[in-house]
Amino acid sequence: MVRYLSKYINTTKEARRLNDVFKALADPTRRKILKMLREQDLSAGEIADAFHISKPSISHHLNLLKQANLVLSDKQGQNVYYSLNTTIFQEVMQWFFEFSERGEIDENK
Asked: Partner of 83 for a Cys bridge, out of 9, 12, 41, 87, CB 3.0 to 4.6 A?
């Protein structure tokens, strides 16, 4: 019974992580940030300069990307630099691969 329960809990964590990823990817501003980070690591200020929205709004977008584990942050002095977390993209691709193999979505994964 405990073995079954721990498997269910892990699956639920995976489902929440995927939900966070898809939520983060749903916004065009966040997708543009990810495209920018694909080219190079950038500071929060450099990212904000590329948009015509407030810095607090950019901070909110960056926090959602961090919560989804799509970006990593590194504080260097007074600046925070962001980079892509390619590991999470591999996990998402694995989910898509499993989806296409089965032809259906298992909501618990």
From this structure: 41
CA dihedral 32, 38, 43, 46 (to 10 degrees): -50
Q: Residue 57, CB half-sphere, CA atoms under 13 Å: how many?
A: 11
Inter-residue contact 81 to 43 (CB < 8 Å): yes
> What are 76-109's pLDDT values in tens digits?
999 999 999 988 878 888 877 887 776 555 555 4
Whose tokens are 């990810």? That residue is 34
Q: What is the 3-state secondary structure (H, E, C) of 13-76?
A: HHHHHHHHHHHHHCCHHHHHHHHHHHHCCEEHHHHHHCCCCCHHHHHHHHHHHHHCCCEEEEEE
Q: What is the pLDDT of residue 11?
A: 61
Establish how many alpha carbons lie within 13 A of residue 40's alpha carbon, considering only the half-sphere containing its beta carbon.
Answer: 4
DSSP secondary structure letter of residue 78: T
**The total number of residues written for the chain in this structure:** 109
